[in-house]
Amino acid sequence: MSASATKESITAPRLALPLWKVAVARSTLEIKQFFREKGQVVFTFGMPLLMLVLLASIFKQHIADTGVDAQQIYVTGMLGVGIMATSFQSMVLQVVGERANGTLKRLRSTPMPKSAYFAGKVAVVLVSSLGQAVILLGLGTAFFGLKLPTDPARWLTFAWVFVLGIVSCTLLGLAYSSYVRPQSAGAMVFLPVIVLQFISGVFIPFNQLPHVLRIIASFFPMKWICQGMRSVFLPDTFRPYEPGHSWGHGQIALALGAYAVVGLLVCLKTFRWKSRNDG
């Protein structure tokens, strides 16, 4: 067999299926694998729910002249934390583990397009995040006084904040995974996420935080996601507690869009399919 024929036989499987079919198949596999990992499912869904129940049960103070209790703020904050947990936090831990055990190296040697792998990761994050959001909103409306909006415009805001948050945090997680060693993955992921929760308006109205912490939080997506969620589920009477006394939808879209672009560029440039031990 000639060298050209051999090359053609090797590359032919790559053209056997359209890219979208390969991406759908990979996405389906990723979702099945996620839900088979019971421990991961319990942690992903359980941690924000547990934090919400504890905080909303202990702290019930009323925010003056807003008609809002701390409990409703916690619900919107946990929506942001949930997105960060399923997209950035879980993504980093998954990819670091797959790189360490050789899964990524084996996938790279298959005919599967690399983009199908990333599509699968985004798909599993979308499914798990949406399920988590439904549970959080159900809990918030049933027990903590959250009122679901009736204005379609607010649900449209929820949709684009949710999608931009997922895409930006997933891409940032994929990019960040290239700099994380398996031995220190837990500390390098959980520590910054925990710190961001305290400075992003999850537990305390954002304008009540020290100015320096507000500036630091503005450089990370969790602050913008939480702000977007508050604009959907809290009444306009709460706007005085937001930066500039405004929901800042334009700034939210610009910030999350910028994170998505930066995450994509860094990911394309630095993403590694092999561990450092493989050279």
TrEMBL record:
Gene Ontology CC annotations of this record: ATP-binding cassette (ABC) transporter complex
InterPro entries for the chain: ABC2_TM, ABC2_TM_bact-type, ABC_2_transport, Nod_factor_ABC_transporter
Protein topology in the membrane: Multi-pass membrane protein
Subcellular compartments: Cell membrane; Membrane
PROSITE patterns documented for this protein: ABC_TM2
ABC transmembrane type-2 domain sequence ranges: 39-274
BP GO annotations: response to antibiotic
Molecular function, one GO term: ABC-type transporter activity
Chief subcellular location: membrane
Name of a matching Pfam family: ABC2_membrane
Annotated keywords: Antibiotic resistance, Cell membrane, Membrane, Transmembrane, Transmembrane helix, Transport
Top-level division of the source organism's lineage: Bacteria
Residue intervals passing through the bilayer: 41-59, 71-97, 118-143, 155-176, 188-206, 247-268
Keyword Membrane: yes
Family assignment from sequence similarity: Belongs to the ABC-2 integral membrane protein family.
Designated name of the protein: Transport permease protein
Source organism per UniProt: Streptomyces morookaense (Streptoverticillium morookaense)
Lineage: Bacteria, Bacillati, Actinomycetota, Actinomycetes, Kitasatosporales
